Amino acid sequence: PPAPDFRLATVTHAQLGEPAFGIAPGDGEIWVTLRTLTDEGMDGLCSQAEALAHATAAQHGLGLTLTYHDIFLHCENAPQAVTALTTALDAEGIPHDARTLPMRASEDFGRFRTICPTAMFFLGAGETHPALHNPDYDFPDVLIEVGARVFMRVVRGRLAARDYI
């Protein structure tokens, strides 16, 4: 697993001027994806990236505009929510594993953890099914029933235990 202070900056797009000879570009644009494991880490990395951009622009006499497209809160599974979920998966006979590696994909699920304990899990379509963002991906409708069974099992378990997490 990556270190708790893991940070990654990936340049995903760059454009400088127009395709022409002998003309200095009048403007440019750089897009960067920033990744960390925690919200605090993201705050720090954003501040550091902004400071670097401002210092570089000032050093070279350039104007600068910074914008953000999305900042996703980190997703961290709460132990009690994981227990409720794994109990439901086991009761439904659905095989699962406990992968602990962080997922680098952007995910807005982290916002839910600000109001209650959460656990995120993935319903797999099988190793031979096209991956989620492949052009030939087609959501297998059979997973709707599987997911509904798991969620209903979690809800019934929490209600029966009077444990509303």
TrEMBL record:
- The name under which this protein is listed is Amidohydrolase
For this protein, the record's InterPro entries field holds: Bact_exopeptidase_dim_dom, Peptidase_M20
Q: Which UniProt keywords apply?
A: Hydrolase
Q: Which residues form a coiled coil?
A: none
- The organism's taxonomic lineage, starting at the top: Bacteria, Pseudomonadati, Pseudomonadota, Alphaproteobacteria, Hyphomicrobiales
Q: Do you know which Pfam families this protein is assigned to?
A: Peptidase_M20
